[in-house]
Amino acid sequence: MVLNRRSIHRIIFAISFDFTYESGMTLEQLRIFLAVAERQHVTRAAEALNLTQSAVSAAVSALEARHGVRFFDRVGRRIVLTETGEAFMAEARAVLDRVETAEMVLEDLSREPRGRLRVHASQTVASYWLPPRLVALREMHPGIELRLTVSNTTHAADAVQDGGADLGLVEGAVAHGGLHRQVVARDRLVLVMATDHPWAGVEAMPQAGLEAQNWILREPGSGTRSEFETWLAGRGLSIAALPLSLELPSNEAVLNAVAASQCLAALSQRAVARPAAAGWIRTLPLPGAERPFSLLTNPRRYRTRAVQALIDILTDEGFAAGTP
């Protein structure tokens, strides 16, 4: 059976109607609640949804009144989630994710890959490996609406597990055993330092003295941090043994901090290639600190043509000869 867009929208309306009939709440109310909960601000939520402030307030109040709960407390001029609101936020997001997935499945009945494609990628992958592949996807399939979220490895895996993402791309170890993991590229860590650091003139990393150096590291949960911890463990060390000056949430922040200090850092060779070539920082290899870039999918969820189109590009070993 071939469905046109009008038919698809009728089916989605039927799904929405059934949900409303069974639960007494509408999907629009859920969207409004989630917008307010994420921003913890009624006016900003109204602006994002292109609704009036009174309409947003009325939708939230109707939900609270019908079910005898309170989602928000007022603290001065702002609102904060109650414990009930925090618990319901996760459920509301899950329902809307399922409805969005249903719409993607129906839209996937067209011959050409189209519809929304939600990708969560860790920072190093998103910044230094993924962009040319996303350009290729856009050129090959302009009907696909891509939504890229950049986070760390842990958050990307959580999104794939919970249905908030169709694909995840990570560089660290993943704790979710139910996800399918496929290696699509490889990377290695290097030691990074300022040009005037005492180790900047050596050709190989000293075998001792790591505990005597000050360190700037990525935040817990990042793939870079996870791989460095694994590398240290292989040498009988731990993060706790290193004098830690700063933990920062991005490669760029770590690079800038290292260049302005006498601290060391461990980062992806891809992330430091251009600053190192420009002579802005110095690097040393970390022997054995290699890691994969992995594609995460959830085998329990429907794989649309849009998802498969990106997977084909990501796993194409001959893609764009010369790209990293």
Cα distance spanning the termini: 42 Å
Helix/strand structural class: alpha/beta
Biggest sheet details: 6 strands, mixed
- The order of strands across the largest sheet is 4-3-5-10-6-9
Tell me the series of helices and strands, N- to C-terminal.
Answer: HHHHEEHEHHEHEEEHEHEHEH
CATH topology of the largest domain: D-Maltodextrin-Binding Protein, domain 2
**What is the second-level CATH architecture of the largest domain?**
3-Layer(aba) Sandwich
Count of separate DSSP helical elements: 12
Q: Write down the overall mean pLDDT.
A: 85
Enumerate the spans where pLDDT stays under 50 for 5 or more consecutive residues: 1-5, 11-23
Can you put this structure into words, describing what you see?
The longest helix is centred in the N-terminal third of the chain and has 25 residues, at 83-107. This protein has helices at 5-23, 27-39, 42-49, 53-67, 83-107, 123-128, 131-140, 153-162, 223-233, 251-259, 269-277, 305-314; strands at residues 72-75, 78-81, 115-122, 144-151, 167-170, 180-194, 215-218, 244-248, 265-268, 281-297. It folds into two domains: 1-110, Orthogonal Bundle (Arc Repressor Mutant, subunit A), CATH 1.10.10; 113-318, D-Maltodextrin-Binding Protein, domain 2 (3-Layer(aba) Sandwich). It is built from twelve helices and ten strands. With 324 residues, it is an alpha/beta fold.
